[in-house]
Amino acid sequence: MIFQNSKNRTKSGSIMKYISLLLFSYLISSGFLLAQNVDFKSSNFKDQKDQLKTIMEKMEQADELMEAGFLKLADDEEHTASFLKALDLYRDAQEFNPDNAELNYKIGKCMLQTSQKTEAIPYLEKSVKLDPEGDPEVYFFLAKAYKFDYQFNEAEKNFKKCKVQLKGKSEEIYIPKINKELSEIKSASDLMDNPARVWVENLEELNTRYDDYSANVSADESTIILNSRNENTKGGQKNENDEYRADMYISLNENGSWSKPKPMDLNTDNDDECVALSGDAQRLFMVNDITGNKNIYLSELTGTRWSNPRELARNSINTEADESYASFSHDDIKIYFVTDNAYANKGGMDMFFSGRINTRFKEEWGKAFTAGSELNTPYNEACIFFHPDGKTIYFTSQGHNSMGGYDVFKSVRESGRWSEPENLGYPVNTVFDEKYISVSASGKHAYITSNRKEDNKGGYDIYRVTFLGPEKPMLIDTEDQLLASRATPVHESTLEAPVQIDAKNLTVLKGRILDEFTKEPVTADIEIVDNEKNEMIMTVHSNSETGKFLVSLPSGINYGIAVIAEDYLFYSENFDLPELSDYQLVKKDIYLQNVCIGCKIVLRNVFFDVGKFILRPESTPELERLYNLLNKLPRLKVEISGHTDNTGSEATNQKLSENRAKAVVEYLVRKGISQDRVIYKGYGSSEPVADNNTYEGRQLNRRTEFKIVEN
């Protein structure tokens, strides 16, 4: 055994003390030593008792504000202001005593309900370090903070830690929440591992440092109406949440860029929110709560002025509950809306619909029904958008396979049922809230509202999603074969190539209704008929100030379109759209003729089988329009003429054209029109209006016309 002498032992002891001191200093500077939890007790602040009392009072106020905030959150009401006020008070306490576990926990808990979600992490981490055996709820909120920071592994670990430590009633409350959070983490991980092929951009020209949300776009993306809570709100008033009251703003697409949003004349001193815009931008649904609960109102554009909002049907649509969102349907026969009415409700806010009872003469709406168990969940649904294709619905929900908060989903009507909702994926959706959506008719763009932290100007912002698909073919100058203003086709480059994005099978027809002589706008009704069923689908109106109109025509129907205006001859057109025909945008100005001798109109919706002269049943709506015109103007005399292409012999074509014209005349005479007012004549192929060397040209040359010969 070797023994150290006393001198060496003293030297060795000094060295060990020195090393221990260095190690202690290192541990302190590195944070390895656990900080001590300092309670708000007078014994800990003997010389600051008055200050302690003031701080304790502030903390009590903060606790009440936080509790009120969570009650609003449970009701899906705006709650941020309550938590921000609580935070101000808690921070005063933090300056006084930064080392209290419960206070750090409450600060982090509040921050999670504001735009400072990821900033909550250090406070919640400190709370755990100060008191590892404290309230297990702190691990739940720490996990949520990690989730908002996309630290999914840390989030999962802390959710599970919370789950293990829960006891009693807390276990009953938090276990379902934790299970949902874990499910959302899995969804988020899966969706982020396989991102959607999209481009998401903040529309800075529409956003402010305040909440800007619910951008409602017209079918052709020419107009957006949005809501904003900025300092320029009408009346400059704030609500009980210390937010500026919401106003509606309009922005126009000018050469591919959105104009600076302008406030709408419909705004009042209250909250005014647009929740839906019709495809033609001539009508809007808006929501306000002047009666104490939210209700849906309709306003219509007449010329350049919006009408006073009119409340939708009481009891069948609006109730004593909150109706907070709505959507137009493509055919105007249904209204889809979101409500927390308890009837058939799966939980929170659910989607419902009501059908129009009489579509032509009086606005009556039937009893509301749930939009379907496939769509609604036990969680909140916030927004619904029925696409103009007539079969696709977009909505936002906290349920299904959400990444967290509200996500945007899509479902398609198939065989009488809605398909399983599909999450639009990352980066359309995030772990933050994506609460509103509106989609262009082409399906190429969606406009969403999100409070994500990326590229955010403040609060909720509006983002445009571009769904990336194959490159669009070059626009080719082509003869317009779908529409002709009169008997002569118009050579123009207005038919856009199909956009192969998300298989939107519809045609959008837009343009102006004009007087052929003066070129001034005409107020007209545009009647859309299903020729095969002989049923009126809907009637839309051109704008009295501009003459503009827009109609969306889902594929799979043979459409008859008639433009009808007082003191004018009607104009007709036919769109026979196969079931899976591609999206197309057809731009067309339609010129109406006054009732005058020599005026000639093509009857586009009079049909015969090839080589036959028996009227097909689909011709009935067009023939009825002609009958009504002659019945209304008893002095009118007309010539019905038949025309063919140059296929076959001239003799055969002459006879066929004459017999077809005769068939129309015989129909009118059977209806009661005097024989001496309608004459028929066949012209064979002698008066072509297009090139007979093309299929499309021959199709235009095969036509039936009527011409006024006496008035």
Descriptive notes:
The chain is built from 11 helices and 36 strands. With 711 residues, it is α+β, with helices and mostly antiparallel strands. The chain has 4 domains: 1-31; 198-467, Neuraminidase (6 Propeller), CATH 2.120.10; 474-594, Sandwich (Immunoglobulin-like), CATH 2.60.40; 597-711, OmpA-like domain (60s Ribosomal Protein L30, Chain: A, 2-Layer Sandwich), CATH 3.30.1330.60. Strands 2, 3, 4, 5 and 6 form a 5-stranded antiparallel beta sheet that branches. Strands 7, 8, 9, 10 and 11 form a 5-stranded antiparallel beta sheet that branches. Strands 16, 17, 18, 19 and 20 form a 5-stranded antiparallel beta sheet that branches. A hairpin with a 6-residue loop joins strand 30 and strand 31. The longest helix has 26 residues, at 49-74.
**Low confidence ranges:** 1-11, 21-33, 475-501
Secondary structure: helix percent: 25-40%
Radius of gyration: 34 Å
The name of the CATH topology of the largest domain is Neuraminidase
Q: Strand portion, in percent?
A: 25-35%
What is the total tally of β strands? 36
The name of the CATH superfamily of the largest domain reads TolB, C-terminal domain
Tell me the overall shape: elongated
